[in-house]
Amino acid sequence: MFFYRCLPLLSRMLTVFICLTVGGPAAAAVLKIQAINQQSRPVENAVITATPLFSKAETVKQTKVIDQINKEYIPRVVIISKGSSVKFPNKDNIRHHVYSFSKAKQFELPLYKGSTAPPVEFNRAGTVTLGCNIHDWMRGYVYISETPFTALTDSKGRASIKDLTEETYRVDIWHPRLKTALISREIKLQQDSIETIKIRLQLKQLIKKRKKSKPRYTPSG
Fold this sequence. Notes:
The chain is mostly beta strands. It has two domains: 27-56 and 149-204, Immunoglobulins (Immunoglobulin-like); 58-146, Immunoglobulin-like (Sandwich), CATH 2.60.40. It has one helix and 17 strands. Strands 6-12-11-8-9 form a five-stranded mixed sheet, with no helix packed on it. A hairpin with an 8-residue loop joins β15 (167-174) and β16. The termini are far apart. The model is unreliable at 13-24 and 213-221 (pLDDT under 50).
């Protein structure tokens, strides 16, 4: 008798369980980018950001590192969220003087070696160009984003942004040598979709090159 009284309750519980199991969490969308230049060659270190137009995505503050190795900034391009910090350790056996005159962040880290320089906080969205007062060919870039959905193209010009919801996004592409400030386009992503964008970037010529080391003088005879 008790079993038959409980049948309606058991039926409702079973229905709820089936709905949760079948429905499950919505599968996220993926955005893939292929960046090429005027000669159809892959473009490395292009920044890709996807900003949702009808919802807000929260960013998380981070601390990233740009090393100074063999008189170069490594990595050359770093993406961070607004309010994050970057450390600039100097792993060379000589001193460097890191600086930026960019609108998004102006700062100087006077001559130093090792990891004595304090981290630099970036509170304004935009791009920051890094230089060195001692070695003028040294260039690095910090891209400060207001969206958590970002990626950097690899040596094959490819990048992927995962965990995107069903939404319309503004996709921005930036590169240090891009002839325009940004390339932007809108794309609507569906649940559980994989969208691929192939984009051709018009890049400026690389002007400032690293100086070659002078050969040491060897006396004859």
